[in-house]
Amino acid sequence: MATERDYGELLTLTFSTPMPYEWSIGKYGSLFFHEIRESQRFTGIRCPQCGKVYVPPRRLCAPCFKELDELIILPNLGSIMAFSVVNYPFPDPATGEQRPIPYTYGCIKIEGSDNIFNHVIDETNVEKIAVGMKVAAVFKGKEEMQGNIQDIRHFRILG
Amino acid sequence: MARRVAIVGTGQTDHRSHRPDVNGREMIYEAVKRALDDCQLSIHDIDAIIIGNMDHFESINYVDTWSVEGSGAVMKPIMKVTTGGTTGASVAIAAYYHVASGFFDKVLAIGWEKNSESDTTAAIITCSDPVWDRAFYSGAIPSLATEASAYMKQYGATQEDAARVAVRDRTNALSNPHAHLRKPITIEDVMASPMLAYPIKLLDVCPRTDGAAAVVFAADGVAQKIAPKPAWIRACAARHTYSWFGDVDYNAGLLSLQRASKEAYQRAGIREPADEIDVAELYLPYSYAGLKWIEDLGFCGPGEGPGFIRDGHTDMGGKIPVNPSGGVISTNCIGATALLRVAEAAMQVMGKAGQRQVPDVEVALATGFGGCFWSDVLILGKARP
Amino acid sequence: MDNIAIVGVAQTKYERRKKDKTYYDLVFEMTKGVLEDSGLTLEDIDNVITVSNDFLDGRTISSMAVGEAAGAGDKNISTVEGDGTFGAFYGAMRVLGGFNTTLVVAHSKGSEGDVKHITNGMFDPIFQRLLGLEAISASALQANAYMDRYGVREESFARVSVKNHANAKNNPYAHLPMELTIEDVMASQKMADPIKLLDCSPVSDGAAAIIIANEAHARKAKTKPVWIKGIAHCAEEYFLGDRDLTNPKSLRDAAKRAYAMAGIADPLKSLDVVELYDAFSYMEPLWLEGLGLCNPGDGPKLLDDGITTMSGALPVNPSGGVLSSHALLVAGLARIIEAVLQLRGEAENRQVEGAKTGLAHGINGPCGQSHCVWILGTEK
């Protein structure tokens, strides 16, 4: 096992394999991914008490501590609330491989929702991105979809 | 009835980027030894221990039981408290309740991290939800960049304003022999440092540090016998408001800090924080927080942060010196970071802060930040509450 | 110590794989459930302790997933990483330290990760982890040492498995209710000598919650309060080679202090029911020795003499214990909950008649390196 750093006489021990997990997505989350695969559209959920719409849909409105069940279909459009072009390399915890950089992490408010959906934006030139810009979701081809967040390829800037 | 509780001793390692000369347990021991020496106790005097860090940074499961040779918990009660970046403050608050409850008279709080033992960003990424956020989340910096850009847009703060905070903390670190980064920097240096994620540059953010902190808490009646001038816990409060990054409203300020500090001020009877608090050790992981979060703490009004900093109010000798220790921008051993804030605040109250001492400290504030924009707040004082 | 009580309990059914539920779902359901049980509302709760483990959840800051599901959005909150008995202990400290009510909630989905990897993570990466030690193999060392020291036979351990799995048939929440014979256990697959498959607890998914309240707030709850009489925890050395695995001295220390707090001089006489953390069958007799209920080496005799059976003088694990349902972290909280149900007289088919004083027990770390002991009572 090679070590990354040279400490002279002092040794280090390197492990690099990620641990395996199989996480449950839950009822509403599963439905969100099914709907993307079947109809390429977003699903949100509305709180009957405060009226807030959450996307992806979740079971609970925390401020009201109210269980939710009113699903609503949302457009595949949103606006950039905030963004960040990421320039530093780091290994992906799922694979141990380095992720390609740069890429743009975006906080996107999907039209008709009240919280922020996090994804990537297909633009890495800081000059060409601004808070408030409209974006549209770009999906993978149906046959490529795996029922995870990467079924949404990225968001594209509409201007 | 809850008992009164005071801090009677503190200890910390000499923080470095890599400590290949010690394993985790050995590094923990260094801080524990110094804390015990500081209050002239032996490990046999300690009734219980609380320890915290973040598991995936060293990949140790059950750190409470793994650590006993370093923490001194052989044949003693020990438990692990962990809440992300707030861990160190959460450990301190747990130590407070260990004593306040009446179960234990003298307890030891420990926070530690050997950030060099893993890729910090790869480890922190796993704090994001595996289903929804992890594929694209790239660690703390982009969320903070998001907060910073929202603040700049809202109030017209500039990158230079933020740089001033980094320069303040790094300058203070020159007086702290334990600090990790002890090299002077200028606003120009910050501005010229590489852009990590707009508007955050390399010198705007905290380093990754190997280090540990330990703090001894004792009950009323016991504390005064150990330390002639203990630092009393006047109040503590925590808010871990959000579970989802998508719920954080960056334009509303740091809600958790607003709420936790409000509760703590109320408990401690503080109405005008900037006037009544003599020194603050704040968990500011990046420079922009130094502008914005002092507003959330009520040191100044919304949007007034940059002016408050520019006017020197938070400098040594100012109205309310912030981070005499050099803060998180100079030293960040994550699980220890917030406990270092508490330790440094206690040292200020006890008059033991050496070259970085603020004169005549009656009341000190310490905060922790972490998780999903969470905050922990402690207020310490010289007067027995 | 001021009077504080457990005024609400909730637990899920324990099962192999709760595929339809996330941690968030489980914690929300338990929070709702424990409020219903107590008759309190979320407004009555002034602070929350969550219990989770980053390795188990595959998530750094695992508590982040569940805070709002526990109703803690605008409340004081903290997180204990370790067995639920430890989390609940911190919850009790907070009530004695100034809060009125603590909601404690623990969750665990062992089905989502690889428990061998996760328990291998308990062992020192430098000296032990590469050797492949994990919970089963380490416990096998302890079981062997125990047999060797006192001449205990594997059949004595098998008898514990038979008793506890049979008790589980009376527990609607149990994962593995089973009618077994000693021969079944002895003939089950060898895992790591002398531990066989039916000597091992299962890996279960589950969650549980309790509410701890001060005396004034205990009166607001609709349940019969179960008073906390004593709690203590203690850890011993880490490396297995530094320990006498046949002498659970940290358990002895914790038990001694918990008994003293509760004013118990003769535990065998004072206790009416015990729920302990039997992750493996050998642990039950060994922990009974540590709890001072018999002399060292006499643990197996307690069962041979029928004392720890449902009809005996001191029934141990009427619920079926951890051998029958093992959701990591949750399991200790479940021991507390089972003791509470016994003392409320609501344990239904598994009820020990007239139980007034109960003991609940949890462990952390390899081979019971750290123990937490709770004494609960029907009287203040």
Can you offer a commentary on this structure?
The complex is a heterotrimer of chains A (159), B (385) and C (380). Chain A has 159 residues and is mainly beta. Chain A has one domain (27-157). The N and C termini of chain A lie far apart (50 Å). In chain A, the strands form 3 sheets. A 5-stranded antiparallel sheet of chain A has the order 8-7-6-9-10, with no helix packed on it. A 3-stranded antiparallel sheet of chain A has the order 2-1-5. Chain A has 1 helix and 10 strands; from the N terminus they run αββββββββββ. By secondary structure, chain B is α/β, with parallel strands linked by helices. Chain B has 2 domains: 5-120 and 209-226, Thiolase/Chalcone synthase (Peroxisomal Thiolase, Chain A, domain 1); 133-206 and 234-381, Peroxisomal Thiolase, Chain A, domain 1 (3-Layer(aba) Sandwich). Chain B is built from 16 helices and 11 strands. Chain B has helices spanning 24-38, 55-58, 63-66, 68-71, 87-100, 120-125, 140-155, 159-173, 187-192, 223-226, 255-268, 273-276, 289-296, 305-310, 327-330, 334-350, and strands spanning 5-12, 48-52, 78-80, 106-114, 195-197, 200-201, 210-219, 231-239, 279-281, 363-370, 374-381. In chain B, the strands form 2 sheets. In chain B, strands 3-2-4-7-1-8-11-10-9 form a 9-stranded mixed sheet. In chain B, strands 5-6 form a two-stranded antiparallel sheet. In chain B, helix 5 (87-100) packs across helix 16 (334-350). Chain B is globular. By secondary structure, chain C is of the alpha/beta class. Chain C has a domain at 4-113 and 203-218: Peroxisomal Thiolase, Chain A, domain 1, CATH 3.40.47.10. Chain C has 14 helices and 11 strands. In chain C, strand 5 (190-192) and strand 6 (195-196) form a beta hairpin. Classes of the chains: A mainly beta (159), B alpha/beta (385), C alpha/beta (380). Chains B and C meet through helix 2, helix 3, strand 3, helix 5 and strand 8 of B and strand 3, helix 3, strand 8 and helix 9 of C.
